[in-house]
Amino acid sequence: APPAERVQAMLALGRNLLDSTQPAEGLQWLRDAVAAAEAIDSQSEVLAEALLALGSHLHQLGELAEAESALRRAVAIYRALPDRPAETVNAQELLARLLVSRKQMAEAEGLLRDALAQRRALHGEDDVSIPWAIAGLARLLDDDGRSLEALPLFAEAEALGARKLGADSVHHAVLLQNLARCQFRAGDFAGAQAGYRRSLAALMRLWGADHAGVATVRINLGMLLVAAQDWNAARTELQAAEQSLAGRQPGNPRDLALVRILLAEAELGRGEIEAGRRWLAQVEGVDLSAPSLVHAEYQRARAWLVAASGDPAAAKAAFAESEAAWDTALAKDNPRAV
Predict the structure, then answer these.
(1) Half-sphere exposure of 56 (CA within 13 A, CB side)
(2) How far apart are CA 149 and CA 138, in angstroms?
(3) Residue 230, phi-psi category: left (phi > 0), alpha (psi -120 to 50), beta (remainder)
(4) Is the pTM here over 0.85, yes or no?
(5) Residue 152, preceding bond cis, omega within 30 degrees?
(6) Going by C-beta distance under 8 Å and a sequence separation of 6 or more, which residues neighbour residue 173?
(7) Is 197 in contact with 177 (CB distance < 8 Å)?
(8) φ and ψ at residue 213, rounded to 5 degrees
(9) How far, in Å, are 128, 181, 192 from residue 166 at the CA level?
(10) Distance (Å) of CA 261 to CA 194, 214, 228
(11) How far apart, in whole angstroms, are the C-alpha atoms of residue 161 and residue 194?
(12) Is the confidence at residue 1, as pLDDT, over 90?
């Protein structure tokens, strides 16, 4: 077989092995494919394809430094080709996602903006990939603490998604959640609640009330309602989520812990001190992976419970501990948004 076809065969074998029970062997085949392609031509499209495949799988495996090197080389080769292949867009988006995970937000933003422009030039505004590309850029801005810049992009993605993907589709429900999350961060509680409820209604029609995805939307809506101090509405949504998650084996203990922490806050907000105490007691012993946002939420609920005991000095200390937990969790999760 010609050399380029041999490289393609090596890539296919590597991908198949990675998807099976032999990931180490599959990864070696991808590395061998890169070496074989480089021996043919160090600036060829087939080498870029091999580097893209290798970088993508290394990213999935958490090997970020090696993945970044491979993806940067792939992007550079694709960009240097006389007619940029469509695969350039995917390579840039993959590299951007990796850079976000490494908190290199400015470079990732530039890559996503360029990739979006390329998608529009290649496929036109009506292509079904455009809403997702817009949402990806908006998510980066939102996670970078720039929710007000992200909002119009999320709204554009949601509107395009309704038209191109179907207003009753799972895809549109996800885009609604993205917009609602950003509205929540920006302080638009009414807009966020409307978006979460529209998404929830669509997913309940599509998946049924007990689906894990429905429970996730209920958790997000419940968190919003707690923040808005709509205690009764929060309790309703969170109880439904708790019942759904508690019946899942195996489930995600941190998700269930978060729901119970939020339920404790809702009960405390309603003045039901003992009910709040009981929900928090169910979280004792669960690994909340501190510092984390779930652990910070627990510390806040615990501070509310201490405050309800009527001991001002203990309450002051508990709230100081809660604020420290939030600062640490936010610095870890999203350092530029603190």
Answers:
(1) 19
(2) 8
(3) beta
(4) yes
(5) no
(6) 198, 199, 202, 203, 206, 217
(7) no
(8) -65, -35
(9) 10, 21, 20
(10) 24, 19, 16
(11) 17
(12) no
- Which residues have a Cβ under 8 Å from the Cβ of 211 and sit 6 or more positions away? 203, 244
Q: Judge whether residue 22 has pLDDT over 60.
A: yes
Residue 251 token pair: 């489930």
- Tokens in use for 272? 């039901």
pLDDT single digits (tens) 288-305: 988 999 999 999 999 999
Q: Write out the two tokens for 166.
A: 């179907």
Residues in contact with 8: Cβ distance below 8 Å, sequence separation at least 6, in sequence order:
46
Contact of 38 with 49, CB cutoff 8 Å: no
- Determine the Cα–Cα distance for residues 280 and 336; give it in Å rounded to an integer: 31
Mind listing the pLDDT tens digit for each residue in 150-163? 999 999 999 999 99
Token representation of residue 24: 């180490």
What lies within 8 Å, CB to CB, of 154 at 6+ separation is 134, 135, 138, 142, 175, 178, 179, 182
The answer to whether 201 and 173 have CB atoms below 8 angstroms apart is no
Q: Which amino acid is at 99?
A: L
Q: What is the largest CA-CA distance in the chain?
A: 80
Radius of gyration of the chain (CA): 23
**51 three-state secondary structure:** helix
DSSP 130-192: HHHHHHHHHHHHHHTT-HHHHHHHHHHHHHHHIIIIITTSHHHHHHHHHHHHHHHHHT-HHHH
d(CA 172, CA 37): 40
What is the Cα–Cα distance from 123 to 109, expressed in whole angstroms? Answer: 21
User: If pLDDT is split at 50, 70 and 90, which confidence band does 85 have?
Assistant: confident
